[in-house]
Design goal:
With 215 residues, the chain is α/β, with parallel strands linked by helices. It has one domain: P-loop containing nucleotide triphosphate hydrolases (Rossmann fold, 3-Layer(aba) Sandwich), CATH 3.40.50. 48% of the residues lie in helices and 14% in strands. The strands form two sheets. It has a five-stranded parallel β-sheet, sandwiched between helices. It has a two-stranded antiparallel ribbon with strand order 5-6. Strand 5 and strand 6 form a beta hairpin. Helix 1 crosses helix 9 and helix 2 crosses helix 3. The longest helix is centred in the C-terminal third of the chain and has 15 residues. It binds BIS(adenosine)-5'-pentaphosphate. The site of BIS(adenosine)-5'-pentaphosphate has 35 residues, from helix 1, helix 2, helix 3, helix 6 and strand 6.
Length: 215
């Protein structure tokens, strides 16, 4: 399995990428999680990225392409991956094409999750995440069985800094301007599969699996 999950902030990319990767026995590569870990460890990458992330802006393409190149090289030979949050611009998509061509590992599909904007805002305002194992919860629709702690590792759950209302507004606008053009890009290449992202998490997973022609 070599797929990309596309969609607006809060559409469920992280939630579905974790489930799909676990089910297919492949790795999930989340550029958002990689950046947040770099911020947590205060590496030079993290310090640069934080300036953009706190405003809901995209981290520059050159930085992101270098990061993903390293991740893919480190995983050469694995049975596959789910890319979550990359590519996000046409320049990133072109770079990904080139990397995959060099490795002779073409993408199988690009899944575009679709959810209306008011539901995205509801999801982002109630999201809580585990800073240790990155598991994602929602205070209403997917609460942790352990309350304010992660079900998997017991760490205290946190609200992401970029889930504040003003930053969310900017992230949605950046998505519309810079990432939505990728829908036509992948449609023209015959890779795009649209999936309705509303409904129980398990149902959305089944829709994706169906679109991929797997069981
Ligand atoms: P990133 O972490 O990738 O954020 P995002 O794309 O904005 O996406 P989110 O993580 O907010 O949402 P999601 O779609 O994963 O939804 P989730 O599953 O969590 O990037 C963060 C920042 O890093 C960017 O703003 C940018 O600055 C930088 N960055 C990252 N990649 C970059 C790149 N390639 N180039 C440049 N910059 C980059 O779900 C959301 C909530 O909804 C959760 O609470 C969940 O429980 C709930 N939920 C999920 N599914 C359902 C459902 N079916 N029903 C009800 N609730 C649901």
């Amino acid at each position: 399995m070599r797929i990309v999950l596309l969609g607006a902030p809060g559409v469920g990319k992280g939630t579905q990428a974790q489930r799909l990767a676990q089910r297919a026995g492949v790795v999930r590569i989340s550029t958002g999680d990689l950046l947040r870990e770099a911020v947590r460890q205060q590496t030079p990458l993290g310090m640069e990225a934080k300036r953009y992330m706190d405003q809901g802006a995209l981290v520059p393409d050159s930085v992101m392409i270098g990061l993903v190149r390293e991740q893919l090289a480190a995983r050469r030979g694995v049975s596959g991956y789910v890319l979550d949050g990359f590519p996000r611009t046409i320049a990133q998509a072109d770079a990904l094409n080139q990397l995959l061509e060099e490795a002779r590992e073409p993408l199988e599909a690009v899944i575009n999750l679709e959810v209306k904007e008011e539901e995205l805002i509801r999801r982002l305002s109630g999201r809580r995440t585990c800073p240790k194992c990155q598991r994602v919860y929602h205070v209403d629709s997917a609460p942790s069985a352990k309350g304010l702690q992660c079900e998997a590792c017991g760490t205290g759950l946190v609200q992401r800094d970029d889930d504040r209302p003003d930053t969310v507004k900017n992230r949605l606008s950046v998505y519309r301007d810079q990432t939505r053009p990728l829908l036509d890009y992948y449609l023209e290449r015959g890779l795009l599969r649209g999936v309705e992202g509303v409904g129980p998490v398990e149902t959305v997973t089944e829709r994706i699996v169906q679109q991929l022609g797997r069981s």
